[in-house]
Amino acid sequence: MTLAAGTKLGTFEVLSPLGAGGMGEVYRAHDPRLRRDVAIKVLPLAFTQDRERLARFEREAQLLAQLHHPHIASIFGLEESDGVRALVMELVEGPTLAERLAGGALPLEESLAIALQVAEALEDAHEKGIVHRDLKPQNIKAPREGKVKVLDFGLAKAMDPTVGASTSSGSQLSMSPTITRGATEIGTILGTAAYMAPEQASGGSVDRRADIWSFGVVLYEMLTGRRLFEGETVSHVLAGVLKDTPDFSALPPGTPDRITDLLRHCLRKKPRERLQAIGDARMAIEEVLADPRLGESTAVAAVPAPAPLRAPRLVWALAAIGLAAALGLGALWLGARRSAPGARVLQASLMPPDEWAFGDTFALSPDGRRIVFEAYERKTGTRGVWLRALDRGESTRLAPADGGEMPFWSPDGAHIGFFAEGKLKRLSLQGGPAQTICDAPTPRGGTWGSDGRIIFTPSFRTGLSVVPAGGGVPKPLTALDASRREKSHRFPVFLPGGKAVLFLAQTAEWGAKNDESAIEALELASGKRTRLVTANSSPFFAPGRILFWRDGALLAQVFDAERLRLEGDPAPLASPVAFTQNEQALAGVSAEGTLVYRGGTRGTFSSLVWLDRTGLGIQALRDRELLTDFALSHDGKRMAYAVNGAGQGSEDLWIQDLVRGSTSRLTFEEGSETYPVWSRDDRYVYYSADRKNDGTVFRRAADGTGAAEEIGTTASGIWPLAASADGKWLVVGSVGAQSSQDIFRYDLATKEIAPLVATPFLDVDGALSPDDRLLAYASELSGRWEVYVQALDGGRGRWQISSEGGLRPRWRADGRELFFLARPDRIMSVEVEPGAAPRFSAPRELFRHQVESFDVTPDGQRIVGRRPADGDGSKPLTLVSNWPLLIAR
Fold this sequence. Notes:
This protein folds into 5 domains: 1-91, 2-Layer Sandwich (Phosphorylase Kinase, domain 1), CATH 3.30.200.20; 99-151 and 180-298, Transferase(Phosphotransferase) domain 1 (Transferase(Phosphotransferase), domain 1); 327-603, TolB, C-terminal domain (Neuraminidase), CATH 2.120.10; 606-713 and 854-871, Tricorn protease N-terminal domain (Neuraminidase, 6 Propeller); 714-849, Neuraminidase. Helix content is 13%, strand content 36%. It contains 12 helices and 57 strands. The strands form 14 sheets. The chain has a 6-stranded antiparallel sheet with strand order 1-2-3-4-6-5, with helices on one face. Strands 50, 51, 52, 53 and 54 form a 5-stranded antiparallel sheet that branches. Strands 9-57-31-30 form a 4-stranded antiparallel sheet, with no helix packed on it. A hairpin with a 6-residue loop joins strand 48 (786-791) and strand 49. It is globular. Residues 161-191 and 296-333 have low confidence and may be disordered.
């Protein structure tokens, strides 16, 4: 069935045809509700007349709609009008890979860049149990500039007429839908058959290893410019798939050995001998692309005399080593760590333990032989501190307490300090439980001196403090300088001899033109401070140099630790290097010349997506941005969100009109604005700004008119969580007297603040019920995060809502349903009977989706979820030996 331009399909208006294939005709159409163009795939008439097959297709399409990945074209929904059934999908502009390949082979680096993005898409789908089944260049959009997108994900199974039917194995050739079409579509059939895995071509069962085969065929074609399997008929093509051996000599000169090996493993005929996980292919390509000597063999080699570093990229000489590295390679690593004539620069990749992902913090031991790191379990979100010796292949979990972060070493390497549960703790590597040293509500780093003292930052708005490593009452060491508008002293580092420390003195103007944040040296005996370098970064010390982060790169500068004086200019050491919103560069050094860092950007890229109550995706609202907080208006028509647009740490608030599809910037001041909260009438947005300190609340008209109105702050800072119905008070978060965070009531007229929830544990995520009678929140009261509800306004009672963990409670507009997020990635629902003694049903799971936070529409039927756009925690840490050889002397 052909649709003419102007044809209406539901609310969609057909604009023009885009193409046709074995799975239907595709049109460009316009969505007037969201003011955007979409792609509509009209399903064949014969297909839609088969009720059983159509019902199965709809079930499969619902599963496929859960795919939300920057390299996968999204499914928005199903549409039916006048007997026509169509699939509404994301419209992806640009040429397909098939169109690109019509001109011949692609350059090596471009081929690998495209293959990397395809592998990331397959990896995300495979983790959700979804197999593409029809991967080929025609199903890959590959613009010369921009993101690669994989199309028609999983539709081969969705449209397969034999899936679920009682058929012979021979009929399973329809695992690729176009294979059962008529001879008039011979080009499509040949195109599909050329990329089939052998087990698929022979009618066998298909799993993710079939996609791995097709991936290898596509990569081979990009590199050589020719199809791996060709023939005049389908039979000839399939015979080649089943019998022919790939000609790897056709690969262009300079193809890295590791890529050739990858292709050999992808193109094994027997599935059990083939590469078993596409993530392994993704890692191999990442590591080859990271090597600036792309096109050369990756062998261990000595780095001769130090040469000038011409670009902020590392020159390394060893292919990546995972956690399963042999002990022989560990010996090679340690043996190469010598700053002597003929010493080599070696690079290795350190992977997280199985089923775990790296957190944001890690530290090398003083001798550079071990690394301690923070990690979290993927399924439960539980965090712990881990230890790994660099000459061993296993990691050991040291501290199971949830929240372990910012580890640092004792000078003798026998203990580590770290922060967890609002406390500074220490742990002996000889065994035994962690010991609490003192309170540290919202820590910002610590360092252990040779005199048995620990200098640390107990909270995000204080100076440095000092405490005996054995425990005791901490004493203030530095005071914030009001004349410089300082708001924090953080990330201290002892210098040799223990007479001075480096630290970051951060001002309230960070990120602004007049930012005076700087790395300083503090002489402990006199209290004298010496300003060293203007930078808003955690400092690191190595003999003869300090290291710091600036504009995405890790820099090193010559430093005289005795005279506390810098010399020369900073030299680029590695780029890009990840950097947290707390101004901590994700790197570390040891005295003997080992460097560790995580590649990446400032913050983590996220996407905002619409989901229905079953978890199916409706559309993407924001794609791959440095997003943090967001909130739907009470009428569900607008969304306020905070985004770090420049990637340098300063966040601004924007308003997205969900009806018209337009966006407008709400805040323009210097510094960051976060924690948006709507007034109950949706006229205003309350938010927290850091241009004066980390917790001043402002209010601004949601339509952008007028100036920002300062609401108030406290000595500890506050940030808004909810606004009352009468507009007279706010629920705010702040640093409490007993723990790192508590929940308070802030009166807008009197500026008085009173505790609502104040326990010795973390209390966060306060959410007011629509009638202001109940407060839902999350607390670590039980030893792990759980959701509670507490009565307000003179009422009594506290109810534990979740039983298997919970965070981020959200109310439905009528107060009769409460939602929350539970690990792993579960959106939960609780029915509520309001009243003097409210009743709550047992939590039930609505769906599972990889979201970090969410909000709900007034009727509770749709959910906005924020999901990570890239898995930084799954990526390796980079280890470099003898890194000073990389810097020009």
